Amino acid sequence: MKKKKVLITLGVLVGIIAIGVVTVILLTPWMDRWGATDTEIAAAYPGDSLVAAPASIVNRAVTIHATPEQIYPWIIQLGAGKGGYYSYSWLETYMLFCKMTNADRIHPEWQDLKAGDQVKMCPGSFGPAPYMVAQLTSNRSMVLGHQDKGEWVDLWEFNLIAEPDGTTRLILRTRTMMTGGFWDIIHPGVFIMETGMLRGIRDRAETGINNQ
Asked: Per the count of CB atoms within 10 A, which of 37, 88, 139, 186 is most buried?
């Protein structure tokens, strides 16, 4: 009887895992273009050529009721030990063990970012390797990435596109050579954190406008 219960329990766990895997597979196309239009996905952006033939491309986007000039300062102060990532602090702290303080104002001392600077993912020496600033175009784009033997292997691109109605599209594009295995496992978590970050940037930029 005990053996039968163990087998039933294992069967339920395997079933739950299988359902989870199938769900992620079915949702991945939606997650990988969340908020982005066909035109935005097809467009070329400043950092694209640094990883010309990536194994994976992800586009996520949000509309912000502010100008690029009002949004850009929030973006360039991203990083652990600075503005944070404007995402879910409780998730960063208690699940990722990466205690983050997410800024609620623009800090002048964090506005001097330049190519070659590091942007840390976690405070101190803990966590993933820091991003390096690959390119900056004032009020238009910030491109971060990692290199291997002097070659860019992944990019994290923040692109600001002004719209005729006075809003701005913030398009977050990832171009990477790293896929499969571990990267597939963390993919849903990255989606949750990145969409939280996009909303966080939007809310801060719009609130900053309203408070002026």
From this structure: 88
Cα–Cα distance, 112 to 114 (Å, whole number):
6
Instruction: Name the strands in the sheet holding 118-119, side by side, starting at the edge strand that comes first in the sequence.
Output: 56-64, 168-176, 151-162, 141-148, 131-137, 118-119
Boundaries of every domain in the chain: 1-31, 35-210
Identify whether the C-beta of residue 172 lies closer than 8 Å to the C-beta of residue 194: yes
User: Residue 3: what pLDDT?
Assistant: 59
Q: What share of the chain is helix, strand, coil (3-state, %, to 5)?
A: 40, 25, 35
Cα dihedral 206→208→209→212 (10° resolution)? 160
pLDDT of residue 146: 96
Q: Write out residues in the chain with pLDDT < 50, as ranges.
A: 6-7, 9, 11-23, 26, 212
Contact (Cβ atoms closer than 8 angstroms) between residue 154 and residue 145: yes
Could you give the 3-state DSSP secondary structure of residue 167?
coil
Q: What is the pTM of this model?
A: 0.84
